[in-house]
Design a protein that fits this description.
This protein is an alpha+beta fold. It has a single domain, classed as 2-Layer Sandwich (Alpha-D-Glucose-1,6-Bisphosphate, Chain A, domain 4), CATH 3.30.530. It is 27% helix and 29% strand. The chain is built from four helices and seven strands; from the N terminus they run ββααβββββαα. The chain has helices at 30-38, 40-43, 139-161, 168-182; strands at residues 13-16, 19-27, 59-64, 87-97, 101-106, 114-123, 126-134. The protein has a seven-stranded antiparallel β-sheet with strand order 1-2-7-6-5-4-3, with helices on one face. β5 (101-106) and β6 form a beta hairpin. α3 (139-161) packs across α4 (168-182).
Length: 187
């Protein structure tokens, strides 16, 4: 990808036709990473703020404001126009085993039955985060979510390691083109 360095093991894998999976090794301890998944303020620094009831059946609200995740000179793609001032999703917690496992339904209009799962495993001083997003539906949804999760996880790594912020949308657009080549066509 022009202008960005991405190692091969950072790409998500499409393990089923409508499922994408990512792994990242993050600086621990596990409780710190858990807070970045569940605490509204910390989650808002890399994904979306919003209330999350940490119990099965609990509500999840994700309030996205991408302008907070990028550089001031980064321009969103045309398809994102009208959402620059933010948008939100809601869902329900389906599994919650602090600080190791969190699953919730994903309330987007294009994938109302999808589910996101975060698994955390200690690795010495680090933590292995595995993110799996299931039931994404059409290939276009798999492509957007693959690029989106990859980009958001990059922001999480930046926050946890103290690395400088990179342009969110430029990275997303480059990744979306790369996933277009990687995700198989449906037959």
């Amino acid at each position: 990808m022009k202008g960005f360095t991405v190692s091969e093991n950072e790409y998500g894998t499409v393990s089923e036709i409508d499922t994408v999976r990512f792994e990242r090794v993050l600086p621990g301890p596990i409780e710190r990473v858990w807070e970045y998944l569940t605490d509204s303020e910390k989650r808002g620094t890399w994904l979306a703020s919003g209330m999350m009831e940490q119990r099965v059946g609990g509500s999840v609200e994700l309030h996205y404001y991408h302008a907070d995740l990028t550089t001031s000179d980064d321009t969103p793609p045309d398809w994102f126009k009208g959402r620059e001032k933010g948008f939100k999703f809601s869902g329900r917690v389906t599994r919650c085993e602090p600080p190791r496992l969190l699953s919730f339904t994903w309330g987007g209009a294009s994938d109302p039955n999808s589910e996101v799962t975060f698994e955390l495993k200690p690795r010495g001083k680090d933590v292995l985060l595995t993110l799996t997003h299931r039931h994404l539906g059409e290939r276009g949804s798999v492509l957007k979510h693959s690029a989106g999760w990859h980009t958001h996880l990059g922001v999480l790594v930046e926050r946890l390691t103290g690395n400088p912020r990179r342009p969110f949308w430029a990275f997303f657009v480059a990744l979306e083109a790369e996933y277009e080549k990687r995700v198989p066509q449906r037959g």
